[in-house]
Here is the input.
Amino acid sequence: MLKVGFPNYINTLPFLYHLPNFLSLMQGIEIVLDTPSRLNERLANGEIDCGLCSSVFYAKNHKDYLLIPDISISAVGKVKSVCLFHRVPLSELSGKKIGITPETETSFLLLRFILEQRKGVEPEYVKLPHSSQGLSREEAQAFFQGLDAYLAIGNEALELLFKGIFPFITDLAEVWLKETGYPFVFALLLVRKEVCFNYKNKIKVLAESLYLSRAKSLANLSSLIMGYSSSFDEAFLLDYLHHLEFDFSGLKQRAFLYFCKKLLEMNVLQSLPVLNFIDL
Here is the structure.
């Protein structure tokens, strides 16, 4: 059984929504849903064989994995689901406490780059044991007590956009585009090198099924949203998905490597990664 992990976020809908149509092809392939940080851990310890994981996880461990070509979660400008919610302007966050969702790795480093390298801000980061997702507005206010800002990603960030707890909201991908002129690549589809030989045919079927599902979804996002059960307004979800991109083109490859170069300068990476793609 080839176990494939995906974030349990709305942003994976274009890949996953139509997969049930390919059940006859997908025999022997199991889809596992989890948070990005947990998917990184599960891929590293062999619980899953393949995963749409944090781009930074690949950057740190590129010698152990191959990439399935032309698949990512990316944004050119505003993304909506990777936001810093804050009580004071960015320029005033030095020395302030910023809560960090435990679900992120890549977005936390993007935040660090923006604050430390571009804004000259040195805050105190506080990694929290769990997120605020699913809390009422009153419960969320208590959760954020004592924090000057909070980094949220995925569905949690979308929820917080409507709760009005923080007076300032900074979309990190939007700032990244303004600062660098590049799109931002949040996630890539990784395969453990040691499983590539044994599961080569299944990996090819997986890739082709994901490409087809993505194409069908993007051709008619409205019908996808109408068939998806969610507490979010359909018009909001449609607008949200329109802000995302799902390929890993040459421009996005350059953007990813540019971010890695900045992480190398920040001593987060020891070396620049090489983009190694599986031969389908």
